[in-house]
Write a structure and sequence with these properties.
Elements: E1 2-8, H1 12-22, H2 29-35, H3 38-51, E2 61-70, H4 71-77, E3 84-87, H5 104-107, H6 110-132, H7 137-140, E4 149-157, H8 158-168, H9 175-189, H10 193-197, H11 202-206, H12 221-236
Antiparallel strand pairs: 1-2, 2-4, 3-4
Length: 237
């Protein structure tokens, strides 16, 4: 899997800070952009996050080139609708080879791995046969598995990245999309380290896990309430 940051808002963190400061300033955003010190920018960004005032983060956007993910992963990705996607078309791109993703859970099982690879090869062979018989690529693609690799360009603003990472960096999310957003975080850190630090599972912000079962990193709300009840009961005794 490859993720590369190919475009982004110039001075993204300073832009967010200037937009936030504008709401209470008599001068314009352009002047604020030039006037604010790095310390002021950092302090204001921290205040915005702690106060939950995240709309100014929508003024910074990031565009990534993503390669080597499965169609199964991209189907999960595009469920996040406050973003822009351009994906390699299986209508117009005929696959002469079939690059595909192999989960570790399958790669670790030798016999199953062989069956998995044979299935991919058979799927591609049939796909090519359909193309050779004049079936349009847009119809022959119905034979292609979810494991088929794809490429896409992804654009999200910083606020949406925070939200998506809150969900997709959870250790209970599927491994492939976790890896994708771990790589996204690394790319964002190169140009916006404060924003990158806020790309983390939502349990860090909430202080508890809102899943039915915790991964073990942070307790669920139910577990915290039970612990508090035990503590209060011990204190009363």
């Amino acid at each position: 899997m490859q993720v590369a940051l190919i475009s982004y808002t110039a001075e993204p963190e300073r832009t967010v800070a200037a937009a936030a400061r504008l709401s209470t300033s008599p001068v314009g955003a352009a002047e604020l952009l030039q006037r604010m010190t790095p310390e002021q920018v950092a302090s204001l960004l921290q205040h915005l996050v702690e106060a939950g005032h995240l709309s100014p983060f929508e003024h910074a956007s990031f565009t990534f080139a993503v390669e080597g993910i499965s169609r199964a992963c991209s189907h999960q990705l595009v469920r996040h609708r406050l973003a822009s996607y351009t994906q390699q078309s299986q209508r117009y791109v005929s696959l002469k080879t079939l690059p595909f993703i192999t989960p570790e859970s399958i790669a670790a099982k030798g016999k199953l791995l062989g069956s998995y690879q044979a299935h991919m090869e058979a799927s591609h062979k049939l796909y090519r046969e359909f193309l050779e018989q004049g079936v349009p690529a847009e119809d022959a693609r119905y034979l292609l598995p979810n494991a088929t690799e794809t490429k896409l360009v992804l654009t999200m603003n910083a606020r949406e990245l925070m939200h998506v990472c809150g969900v997709r960096l959870c250790l209970r999310a599927q491994w492939e999309i976790v890896e994708l957003f771990e790589k996204v975080k690394i790319e964002v850190h190169k140009v916006a380290p404060f924003i990158a630090r806020e790309l983390k599972p939502k349990c860090y912000q909430m202080g508890y896990c809102d899943e039915n079962e915790s991964c073990g990193l942070i307790p669920t709300l139910k577990e915290l309430e039970e612990d508090e009840a035990v503590t209060q009961g011990a204190g009363a005794a």
